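Running this now, will post back.
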Amino acid sequence: MTELRTLQAITRALSDAMEADPSVILLGEDIGAAGGPFGATRGLHARFGPERVRDTPIAEAALVGAAVGAALTGLRPVAEIMFMDFITLAMDALVNQAAKARFMFGGQRGVPMVLRTPHGGGLSAGPQHSQCLEAWLCHVPGLKVVCPATPADAYGLLRSAIADPDPVIVVEHKGLYAMKGELPDPPAPVPIGRARLARPGRDATILCYGAAVHWSLAAAEDLAREGIEAEVLDLRSLQPWDEAAVLESLSRTHRLVIAHEAVEAFGVGAEIAARMAEVGFDELDAPILRVGAPFTPVPFAPPLEAAWRPDAARIAAAVRRTLA
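Update: finished.
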């Protein structure tokens, strides 16, 4: 095992994929000599050259459109959007082109591209640089969406995304870039569509992804001091999501709390809650509860942002409510 930061795991995944497959190229704003806005592509421009690590203008629609075209002509582009908020500018290329190609071409041609983009608050970056918009993408047939919570998953999910024959959105929480963790040696891909049991338990299941995994683990530690053993299930893959793993966990705990940083209304948690109420109803001993952000833009002021974001205390409170 090797200890490294999430950002270093992402860089290694990109480097290993480019070393293994000459068709893998990178596109994005300042990803070349500058190494990317957060440093994820540092050193790759010097190693693989400007033909494979391409700086683009500040034009998200253009760079994602170029990635779609490159994928259709035999390359495996990995495009980077600096902040997830600006995925709005690339939605036509993603939703109407990349996601629909395999369906419209009768299954004969896919779009093997990856879009990397960071989401989430905690850095006082304001309402236009802190949003969690993954639910939009999960709603589009033809797109796959993953969100790692650990360095090992950041590496493994990105390698699987690059190898996938269809478009995959890799959502990274910028607040986790500096987090350290262990990476197996040699590292391995992580299958898209499989959840990870982060902590076993018996009294309630906390289903989460991204930064909320760490809040949930902290909540479970607090609850354990009260004699409550919460199980923490890291979804990892949001579309497709691991329904079987959630049902299996629910069969042990019979209570479900779903936590994510995105606004609670119309989110990933709402979809999973509806599905579990349908197929897991016989396992439920209490209502499913959700913990998400309130339905407002992300505040800029640090105290307001801290009050706005979900945290371990709110997740623990939801577990206590479902056990009451």
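The chain has two domains: 2-183, 196-323. More later if anyone needs it.
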